[in-house]
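TA notes. Do not distribute before section.
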Amino acid sequence: MLKGKSAVVTGASKGIGKAIAIELAKNGADIVINYCSSEDAAKDLKKDIEALGSKAVLCCCDVSVPEEAKALVDLAVEKFGKIDILINNAGIGLAPPSALDITNEDFARVIDINLKGTFYCSMEAVREMMKRGSGKIIGISSSAVEQPRGGTAAYSASKSGVELLMNSLAQEFGPYGINVNIVAPGPTETEMLKDFFTPERKKEVESGIPLRRLAKPEDIAKAVLFLVSDMSGYITGQKILVDGGRTIR
């Protein structure tokens, strides 16, 4: 499905990013694995991708730094000759009991990584994609945009910004053959949330989900695969909520 395509996945060493990288590699894409601190996990992922018959390269960089975001995209072009797909997955969560508990520094860091990082990487990818007249960009958002909850002020604001950014890019760069879409996961069983989901809390959250379970990273990855494949060639500026129906209105 993606044979001959090259993809950059930010924040790819674990969780949702890892699942996306593996799903794209299963379908033939070569992957640039971006990570910031989890080097061992990134190296293990590289081995997994190569075992699937795809190529993989590692890139340790902080996407919130413009020069490093540029180096990430430049590496894809250097190693694979092009960038066909960008998955803006890198992000951090922040959910203290109250917005009053969020420090200015914490708020700035969430915005820097989740929103600015998505902008920096997307702009570098767009410049390359415009040269070839095609490309797929995905912003990973969150169901928290639909249902913001206490303490999620910084996180929800950053993801809302990601959605507006993606929609703006879809409008502007659609004429250049670039599709830009959003995947918004609901509560997902990842390492980032493992401490949050105590057995009691997990049961409580699942009771509010029509499908009665949390998402798995693979659920998110399959939605991403659809949006970067030829099956979605006429879809841009859209959002897929992968939340088991939690935000049904």
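Switch to the second chain here.
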Amino acid sequence: MANDALTMADTPTAVAPTHGRGNPLMYTLGMPIAMFGLFIALLPPVLVAMALKVAEIAPQDQAGVLGTALGIGAFAAMVANPLAGRFSDRTAGRLGMRRPWIIGGTVLGFAALVVVATTSSVVVLVVAWGVAQVAYNATIAALTAVMPDHVTRSQRGRVAALLGLAQNLALVGGTFLVQLFSTSATQMIVPGAIGSAVVVLYAVLFRDRVLVDRPTSKLGVGQLFGSFVFNPVKHPDLGWAWLTRFMMVAAQYTAVSYLTYFLRDDIGVNEANLANAVFQGTLWNVVGIVLTSLVAGWLSDRLGRRKLFVAVAGVVGVVGLVLIALAPSLSTVLVGEFVMGAGMGVFYAVDLALITDVLPSDEDNAKDLGVVNIAQALPQSIVPAAAPGVIALTGGYSGFFITGAVVGLLGIASVSRIRGVR
């Protein structure tokens, strides 16, 4: 078990408690704004620009190269997130525990994104995208840990709702920026520059948690491997919460990763209008999110309930995915995007609050959240790798999306097994 590997220097007494300290707006509003910036930088390449870039440099094997790039990038993200979280938990110095990782990850991530945008080599593209995912996920690990560091349990539903809303608003903001430019290079670099600047500005301004005593022992191999695991027998609620997130993200990612090709090949959207069509889809998706997420986060805090909201959100999200899969036209896809957004908005609003409520301990917040974030990164590796086979087996992108909906139903079943929260 990862927590059993902790040394005395890693105990809670080594860390200054900071819940409720500093300017509350830096955590209730500033942190979601920073998350918005981070995903403005990271999402446009995943949703649109990467597919178009791959079509430019590997026109004969677009689906295969895209799957390889996204899969390797997601695997890199899966490895980087918990490791960065572990190191963040042990980072001492006047700059704080989280700030160095937020700034360093963002700067390196943007540099790698520039390489992705300007290369004409498939190998360089894949490697640089992997580096970008490592760097930006180091930022995600540290930024996510700010919530349990500073936000009280009674406020987590609202803050989680704002974080989820910020991530999904970045879908619209990013794809809106993308459609303003005609080349894949500018479609990556401009959103990346704007989003990265927002994150760095937040990191400079917020009051970070500071480690009082430097850890006296070095991380051994066992502890490093322990960064990727927790004991689901000792902490079953965290295990079921992990599985719920894994299944729901996998379901959603089936549509996200291949939406561009689905619109082009099945719906008949021409290349010139693809970026705008994806923008319309993400816009309606976020409309659904906005209408549900903030209300769901507030109600979840008010009623003290998490599981019910997650289960209902999952059902609505799955219905939206089925509508997209069976869509005969772009207008039906937009309806499906709206319905899926309404469901996933509630899910992301409450799921993070549920997870922070079942974290095993306070001294390893970033590491444990990093392990949980594997549940978000792993599907992004598995889904692209499995996609060509599933698409061939099920007869096309629609069958692929239906398969994702089935996985989403399994996620809904998982949340019912959590016992420690209502």
